[in-house]
Write a structure and sequence with these properties.
6-stranded mixed sheet; alpha/beta; elongated; single chain; 17 strands
């Protein structure tokens, strides 16, 4: 039996500071703060630790009395799911404005329909005089009212104290649950840094991190929902529905993975949006950096564009990551069309031996099982340990067949060692190595691929 982990949801109408409060509670200030309605769309999970106690915090999208559009209805549905699974609700109110009908209706819904324990969080107190408004919120049906400035971190400690004193008072922390229930709840936590417990040697210690990248609306979130077999990431035909990286732990065929859903990189014409564009690009590149395998989705009905090429070049030439190009909507293609597309991609990247091309349909779950077989087959090569003396012999045999161009300098390559794995980084030591041409570097790289009998993983060669 293990300790029960309580779940706390942050609920409220749009633009009241829910995400800012979420970041303060989990001590994560990397999320961009954009003065824009509805910047949160998907549920986001984080873990809060305070005085040796833990709880799960859920950030949700903005609540609306009458959601009109399809995407608003999906956001509302996600928020209601969060309410159902929570022990406590933090209802966030914008203290700089008057109470609205939406605020009152949310409070009534939580107390009467869902019968939830509520703590009122009156945010944005930096803009107001507390003496004038302190008695304005008792109509919400609870005396549990906290005044904070999430933006500046004021009185956040009071909220933490209130949460855990409430949990202890109601003996929620003393509950015990079975291991399966705990595992289900922990699998919901969307964290960039996951806590890893001690496992036996036969168990997989670290999940394989998969970054899903590509232009907006090519099917990244649809594919992730297909893998999860449930609607956890909101999808819509409006480009840019995913508005920040989402980290999702999952078990697929008894193996652990962390799925990273990213924002689509698109062209923003308005100069005022440059900050947002820069943030989106940086977040995508961070996802690539944090991943073990990168999955680039291409919508076959749209084709490949310059941004796809730029992303591929960044992944393979700057970060040396394992790359799988996923051609989505393959249900629209016949066998001949698939062959043509694969040949076109292969010819374009013919010098990169580690790019895999795979056809899927995220909508109809075509090619998903075989995709994970490819991922596992490729990833196992990152675990192979290579002997330095073997690499030196391979290099010397290659030199016998073809000497490096000298450029009037005497070049002598002496020995090889491994600097790191994943990416496999080979360091070649010698004299005047800075004069070695890229073509000879590619020649040696191909020789290592052939002799080590590895495929689909990048090899980085450095000279010293």
């Amino acid at each position: 039996m293990e300790q029960y982990i309580p779940i706390i949801s942050i609920i409220g109408r749009k633009n009241v500071g829910k995400s800012t409060l979420f970041n303060q509670l989990i001590k994560n200030r990397k999320k961009i703060q954009i003065n824009k309605i509805k910047t949160t769309i998907d549920r986001k999970y984080g873990e809060m630790t305070y005085k040796n106690n833990k709880c799960i915090i859920i950030d949700t999208g903005g609540f609306n009395n009458r959601p009109n559009s399809t995407i608003e209805k999906k956001i509302q549905k996600q928020s209601l799911k969060s309410i159902e699974e929570s022990n406590i609700i933090l209802l966030v109110i914008d203290g700089s404005t008057s109470l609205t009908d939406i605020d009152k209706n949310i409070s009534h819904l939580l107390r009467k329909t869902y019968k939830k324990n509520i703590i009122i969080i009156v945010n944005k107190i930096e803009k107001i005089n507390l003496k004038n408004i302190k008695n304005n919120f008792h109509c919400l049906g609870t005396n549990e009212i906290n005044f904070v400035s999430a933006l500046y971190g004021k009185k956040i400690i009071n909220v933490k104290n209130k949460i855990f004193s409430f949990l202890k008072k109601n003996e929620i922390l003393k509950k015990n649950v079975n291991n399966n229930e705990i595992l289900c709840k922990k699998n919901l936590i969307l964290l960039k840094k996951q806590e890893l417990t001690k496992k036996t040697k036969n168990q997989q210690l670290f999940p394989i991190k998969l970054a899903f990248i590509g232009k907006p609306n090519v099917g990244k979130s649809t594919l992730i929902n297909c893998i999860l077999k449930k609607q956890q990431v909101i999808t819509h035909n409006t480009p840019g529905t995913t508005q920040e990286n989402i980290y999702i732990p999952v078990v697929f065929n008894k193996k652990k993975y962390t799925l990273i859903d990213t924002m689509g990189i698109t062209k923003l014409q308005n100069n005022k949006k440059k900050k947002i564009k820069k943030y989106i690009i940086n977040e995508t590149l961070n996802a690539v950096q944090n991943s073990n395998v990168v999955l680039l989705l291409i919508d076959v009905s749209i084709g490949m564009f310059k941004k796809d090429i730029n992303l591929i070049n960044f992944v393979i030439k700057k970060k040396y990551k394992i790359l799988i190009i996923l051609v989505n909507k393959c249900d629209l293609l016949n066998k001949i069309e698939k062959t043509k597309i694969k040949k076109k991609l292969t010819d374009y990247f013919k010098y990169e031996k580690f790019i895999e091309i795979h056809f899927i349909s995220a909508k109809y779950s075509i090619g998903i099982s075989s995709l994970f077989k490819i991922i596992n087959n490729i990833y196992k090569y990152t675990k192979i340990k290579v002997n330095n003396s073997l690499l030196t012999r391979i290099m010397k045999n290659a030199i016998k067949k073809q000497q490096p161009l000298t450029h009037n300098k005497k070049i002598k390559l002496k020995f090889v060692n491994i600097k790191q794995y994943n990416p496999l980084t080979i360091v070649i030591h010698g004299n005047n190595t800075k004069y070695i041409h890229n073509s000879y570097k590619n020649y040696l790289k191909n020789i290592f691929y052939e002799n080590l009998k590895i495929k689909s993983i990048p090899i980085q060669i450095k000279f010293k």
